[in-house]
Amino acid sequence: MRYVIIGMSAAAVSAARAIRSVDRDGELILVSDEPHPPYSRIFITHYLAGAVTLDDMLIAGSSLDRELGARFLCGRRVLKVDPGSRSVHLASGEALVYDRLLVASGARPQIPEFPGAHLDGVSGMRTLGDAEVLAARVDAAGPGARVVVLGGGLVSMKTAEALVKRGAEVTVVVASRQVLSQMIDRAAAGMIQERMARAGVEVVLGDDVAEARGGPETGVEVVALASGRSLACCALVVGKGVVPNTDFLEGSGVEIDHGVLVDGRGRTSVPGVWAAGDVAEGSDLLTGRRAVLAMWPSAVRQGRAAGLDMAGATAACDGGVRVNAGSFFGLGVASAGLTRAPEGAEEIVLGPRGDFYRKVIITGGAVAGVVLAGDVSSAGVWQNLIARRVPVTAFAAKLRDRTFGYPAVVPLRPELHRRS
Question: What's 86's DSSP letter?
Answer without folding.
Answer: T
